[in-house]
Amino acid sequence: MRIVAFDRKDGAGLGVVEGNEVIDLSAVDAAAPRELGAVLRGPGLGALAAIAKKAGAAHRIPLAGILYRMPVETPGKIICLGLNYIEHVNEGPFLRPDYPTLFMRAMTSLVPHGVPLEAPKVSETFDYEAELVAIIGKKARHLTPENALDCVAGYSCFNDGSIREFQRHTIQWTTGKNFDRSGSFGPFFVGADELPPGASGLSIECRLNGKSVQKDNTKNMSFNVVETLVYVTKGITLEPGDLLVMGTPAGVGHGRKPQLWMRPGDTCEVEIEKVGLLSNGIVAEA
User: Fold this and answer.
1) What is the pLDDT of residue 90?
2) Residue 13: helix, strand or coil by DSSP?
3) Cβ neighbours of residue 256 under 8 Å, at least 6 residues apart?
4) What are the pLDDT digits (tens) for 131-156?
5) Count of helices and strands (H, E) across the chain
6) Is the pLDDT of residue 246 over 90?
7) Rounded average pLDDT over 175-204
8) Around Cβ 193, how many Cβ atoms within 10 Å?
């Protein structure tokens, strides 16, 4: 199932995407859930599928022209990986890590598909990072390689926009990874059952103003989804609606000569095979 969160006249809504149309679940049933995180923490995806089965022609709207919201608007945690494609490690000053390199992002750092990212006033070093994100569907701790994927409800696209100058100020990356409206998430939630196990073997690409700047395959992660879930849950309980952002391939702006930064007027696209295309313009911070 492919789910989209979008703006209705009366607020947030959820829809099931079928081709070029969206089944507006709140139009089918006024009591339908309106936020995917709450669905994952409560009735589960089956509740949305049951509502969608009742849809008629009047409950469908064109996908084109909707105003997107983030697939999950209330994640409890956003856990991100750095240095997770070996060619990307070679672009920077770091050595290949022995363990997954984890950091956190805040919701205030993210916008949905179609909403501009903000180039900050204080630095020109605004970099793009195409990433796959796994969306957690079940509470999990001490996972094993055999059961790790049982907790993944689905996947989406992510742009882990980074202010490199501030990322390098300390050995912790928090500031450079959390500028307001510097990253994006969406456009769809794609159920795990529609993709290969662990979303492995999918093409991942970033384009800046239509030019390909990153291109790789999710099978080339140093730590795949299973390995990362096992490691994270040694100490951190994952909960429904949490996000696990899986790192970026080579080709980022800070590793280029000359370096390449996102600037006002640019458009950045993240596309992952079978998952979707996340697109955001860039504007100057107000």
Assistant:
1) 65
2) strand
3) none
4) 999 999 999 999 999 999 999 999 99
5) 6, 18
6) yes
7) 98
8) 9
Structural domains of the chain, ranges and CATH numbers in brackets: 2-62 (no CATH), 78-284 (3.90.850.10)
Residue matched to tokens 């050995």: 171
**165, 123 Cβ separation under 8 angstroms:** yes
Q: Taking Cα atoms as reference points, which of 91, 78, 71, 118 lies closest to residue 248?
A: 91
Nearest alpha-carbon partner for 164 in 197, 123, 103: 123
Q: What count of other Cβ atoms lies within 10 Å of the Cβ of residue 110? A: 26
Average pLDDT value for the chain:
96
pTM of the model: 0.96
Q: Scan for tokens 């923490």, then name that residue.
A: 41
Q: What is the pLDDT of residues 49-82, one digit of tens each?
A: 999 999 999 999 999 999 999 999 999 999 999 9
Helix %, strand %, coil % of the chain (to 5): 20, 35, 45
Element (H, E) at 191: strand 183-191
pLDDT computed for residue 94 by the predictor:
65
Cα–Cα distances (Å) from 151 to 38, 128, 193, 206, 207, in that order, read 16, 28, 12, 28, 31
Burial class (CB in 10 A: 0-12, 13-18, 19+), 99: exposed
